[in-house]
């Protein structure tokens, strides 16, 4: 997903989307993703708008997370720790994290609705290839192939990769109890 964000940002740069409006000039030579999915100009512009919306959302939530983390620091360094004040702030971080995950899902769904059936099929092929990245890393480790990005830990990609959501301290879907965290046999 992170690579898709980078590609979409490149599309924004190529199109001259800077948050102040989109020009009506000719569309420059498209990126590899644009070529691969055969995106039309309207699709590129709308994907750029969605990406800009997501970046603005992340920026606002990241600012709030930084503020809450400063508050946690202040409460923690106080002579007497107020557990409820600390708990409220950690709850807010978790709420921001969950909201960010939900917002990304909604924006992704909106982006996918822009695609035709043929484009969704091609996107599915990209997703399947992405799931193979850990196997590619293992094959590279045993010198079976020459992975295109040496030094990149491809084993951290795919479903195991943690997302960089504001306020998230733990990967999504983990529901281990505190007792399980203390006792590995649980």
Q: Can you give a write-up of this model?
A:
The protein has 186 residues and is mainly alpha-helical. The protein has one domain (2-138). The chain is 63% helix and 0% strand. It has 7 helices and no strands. The longest helix is centred in the N-terminal third of the chain and has 37 residues, at 41-77. The protein is flat and about 60 Å long. Residues 1-30, 158-162, 174-178 and 180-186 have low confidence and may be disordered.
Notable characteristics:
7 helices, disordered C terminus, 186 residues, mainly alpha
Question: What can be said about the biggest beta sheet?
Answer: none
Name the shape in a single word.
flat
Count of runs of 4 or more consecutive helical residues: 7
| Average pLDDT over all residues | 76
> What sequence of helices (H) and strands (E) makes up the elements?
HHHHHHH
The counted number of beta strands is 0
Q: What share of residues is helical?
A: 55-70%
Q: Strand share of the residues?
A: under 5%
N- to C-terminal distance = 33 Å
Which stretches are poorly predicted, pLDDT < 50 over at least 5 residues? 1-30, 158-162, 174-178, 180-186
Structural class: mainly alpha
Integer count of domains: 1
Oligomer: single chain
Radius of gyration: 21 Å
Describe, in short, the structure shown.
With 186 residues, the protein is an all-alpha fold.
What is the topology?
Elements: H1 2-15, H2 32-37, H3 41-77, H4 83-113, H5 117-131, H6 133-141, H7 178-182
Helix pairs in contact: 1-3, 3-4
């Amino acid at each position: 997903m992170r690579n898709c964000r980078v590609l979409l940002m490149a599309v924004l740069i190529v199109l001259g989307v800077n948050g102040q409006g989109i020009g009506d000039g000719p569309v420059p030579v498209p990126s590899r993703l644009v070529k691969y999915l055969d995106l039309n100009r309207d699709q590129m512009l709308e994907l750029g708008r969605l990406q800009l919306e997501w970046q603005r959302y992340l920026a606002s939530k990241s600012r709030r997370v930084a503020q809450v983390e400063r508050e946690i620091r202040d409460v923690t360094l106080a002579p007497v720790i107020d557990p409820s004040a600390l708990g409220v702030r950690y709850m807010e971080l978790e709420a921001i994290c969950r909201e960010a995950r939900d917002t990304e899902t909604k924006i992704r769904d909106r982006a996918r609705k822009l695609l035709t059936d043929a484009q969704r099929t091609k996107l599915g092929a990209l997703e399947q290839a992405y799931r193979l990245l850990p196997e590619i890393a293992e094959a590279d480790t045993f010198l079976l192939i020459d992975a295109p990005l040496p030094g990149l830990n491809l084993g951290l990609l795919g479903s195991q990769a943690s997302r960089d959501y504001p306020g998230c301290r733990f990967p999504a879907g983990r529901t281990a109890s505190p007792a399980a965290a203390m006792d590995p046999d649980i």
